[in-house]
Amino acid sequence: MHRFTSYASAVLFAAVLALGLASCDGANSAFAGKYETTDTQGQPMTITLSEDGAASGSRAEETLKGSWKEEGDGVMVTWSDDWATKITKDGDKYTKTAYKGGTADGEPVAAKKVE
Fold it and tell me: Quick one: which H or E segment has residue 94?
C-alpha cells in the first residue's frame, strides 16, 4: 500500500507541475488573442498572441515573428528584430508600449483586443 501511495503522489505532483509549466507559455491566458493597435509611427499594427507562446504581427508591409509571456499586469512580446512590445490591461482597456533595445520608444498607445 505504501508503494502505491508513493506512486500516486509522484503522478499527482508531475501532473500539477506540468499544468503549472503549461500556464507559463500562454496556455489558457486571458491575453491570448488578436490585438489592433498602432506602431511607433502611428501606422496600423496587428499583434496575435497564440496560446502556445508564439507571437505574430503585421505592420505596413512587414510580418513580425516572436514569442510572449505574462509579466506582471500584462505580457511582454519579444520580436526577432530586437524590438519588444508590452501589452497591459487596466480594467477593460489595453495599452501597448514599444521597446527598442530594452528602452521604451514613445508613449503607450491604445490597443484593442478583437479576438
Answer: strand 93-100
Model pTM? 0.75
d(CA 14, CA 81): 36
Count CA within 13 A, CB hemisphere, residue 48: 10
C-alpha cell at 107: 508613449
The pairing of strands 54-59 and 109-113 is: unpaired
In the prediction, which pLDDT does 23 show?
Answer: 43
Question: CA distances (Å), 81 to each of 6, 7, 26, in order?
Answer: 48, 47, 21
Region of residue 71 (left: phi > 0; alpha: psi -120 to 50; beta: else): beta
Q: What is the CATH number of domain 2-113?
A: 2.40.128.640
The band of 29, judged by pLDDT with boundaries at 50, 70 and 90, is confident
What residues does 79 pair with on adjacent strands?
66
Three cell numbers at 43? 501606422
Q: What is the enclosing helix (H) or strand (E) of 110? A: strand 109-113
Residue carrying the nine cell digits 491604445:
110
